[in-house]
TrEMBL record:
One of its GO terms (biological process) is L-arginine biosynthetic process. It catalyses: N-acetyl-L-glutamate 5-semialdehyde + phosphate + NADP(+) = N-acetyl-L-glutamyl 5-phosphate + NADPH + H(+). It comes from the Bacteria. The keyword NADP applies. InterPro entries: AGPR, AGPR_dimerisation_dom, AGPR_type-1, NAD(P)-bd_dom_sf, Semialdehyde_DH_NAD-bd. This is N-acetyl-gamma-glutamyl-phosphate reductase. HAMAP family: ArgC_type1. Coiled coil: none annotated. The lineage of its organism: Bacteria, Thermotogati, Synergistota, Synergistia, Synergistales. Keywords: Amino-acid biosynthesis, Arginine biosynthesis, Cytoplasm, NADP, Oxidoreductase. The gene is argC. It is found in: Cytoplasm.
Length: 351
């Protein structure tokens, strides 16, 4: 079994990696670090995992420099990963691998990174990472030693639009309007006034009206100019989950047959992407509750009667397919393990 280190393991994404690896079989957790929880047992931060990690405690971050691992996940906040990756680079040899869940290396272009995330902390390393969405970069990931994480909203938006792009049907789209409805876990585990239950519960709060930093990833990966897209993010009454709806006015009418062929061609062999059924009507667009706790993505569409307005939807669990699940999926590919290993968990429904 390969030894795994997790930095930032006391957070939400780090906890999800621990949950996945508890029953993985190919990876063994050998080291977990936390800047805020050093010396505390893992079961205090993640009581639901007490059965799997009874004796594991959080080590100081410096412990990763000892190199007693084959694979390291960085589940650190934005701008915290890059300095650590620079320190870890001398250790990334002899088959060691790194998957970074932060936004520090998602964007390949330095100017794009500065526009969405601020000053670039590691411009010289920017081109060394493979963007970690297997549905786009499976073969590159297999041979990579450095893989970046994916934005949860970017994942849902990209998977909604990808069939149109790959099939050439994107030429019929006049404008790309994405709307993401998201749960509170997108805000992370650090308390803040905007995320407190007393202020957040029973609200539908629009937090980004026209653009969101994940839009840079969508533009990069689908090669659609940013000015041709908008991305609205609305916080809704969920703990976890993303529902992304792509509203696309069409230059020329399409048929449902065109769209079904595009979706089946894009996702017919994908292990973690499922298509919504055409009937009943209320099931045509995906509900995040149908994928919670899993690494699955659900994609569906609806076409207007005049065939000139299209709605495509994608639902994911933001902590799984939008973060930890995809990270482990990438790690499986990097170590030549079965891509689905440790990730064959059905969604929890109802949730």
């Amino acid at each position: 079994m390969y030894r795994v280190a997790i930095m930032g393991a006391s957070g939400l994404a780090g906890g999800e990696i621990l949950r996945i690896l508890a029953n993985h079989g190919g990876f063994r957790v050998s080291l977990v670090t936390s800047a805020s929880s050093t010396g505390r047992p893992v079961r205090q931060a993640h009581p639901h995992l007490a059965y799997a990690y009874r004796d594991l405690t959080f080590s100081p971050e410096e412990a990763v420099l000892e190199g007693e691992w084959d694979l390291i996940f960085l589940a650190l906040p934005h701008r915290k990963s890059a300095p650590w990756i620079r320190r870890l680079m001398p250790l990334l040899e002899g088959g060691r691998r790194l998957v970074d869940l932060s936004g520090d290396f998602r964007l390949r272009d330095t100017e794009a990174h500065r526009r969405w995330y601020g000053e670039d902390p590691a411009e010289d390393l920017r081109g060394a990472f493979v963007y970690g969405l297997p549905e786009l970069h499976r073969e590159e990931i297999r041979f990579a030693s450095l893989v970046s994480g994916v934005g949860c909203n970017a994942t849902a938006a990209t998977l909604a639009a990808l069939p149109l792009v790959r099939s050439g049907l994107s030429e019929a789209v006049l404008q790309w309007w994405f709307e993401c409805r998201v749960g509170s876990s997108e805000g992370g585990s650090v308390p803040n006034e905007g995320g407190m239950h007393v202020f957040r519960s029973r609200t539908m709060r629009v937090v980004s009206c026209f653009s969101h930093r994940h839009l840079g990833e969508v533009s990069q990966e689908l090669r659609i100019p940013e000015e041709a897209m908008s991305l609205t993010v609305t916080s809704v009454e969920m703990v976890r989950g993303v529902q992304c709806l792509l509203s696309a006015p069409l230059r020329e009418p399409l048929t449902e047959g065109d769209l079904w062929r595009a979706l089946r061609s894009a996702y017919g062999t994908e292990p973690f992407v499922d298509l919504c059924p055409p009937r009943p009507g209320h099931m045509r667009l995906p509900d995040p509750r149908l994928v919670l706790g899993s690494n699955r993505a659900l994609v569906g569409f609806s076409l207007s009667d005049d065939r000139r307005r299209l709605l495509v939807g994608c639902a994911i669990d933001n902590l799984m397919k939008g973060a930890a699940g995809t990270a482990v999926q990438c790690a499986n590919l990097m170590f030549r393990l079965p891509e689905e290993q440790g990730l064959i968990m059905p969604p929890a429904y109802p949730a």
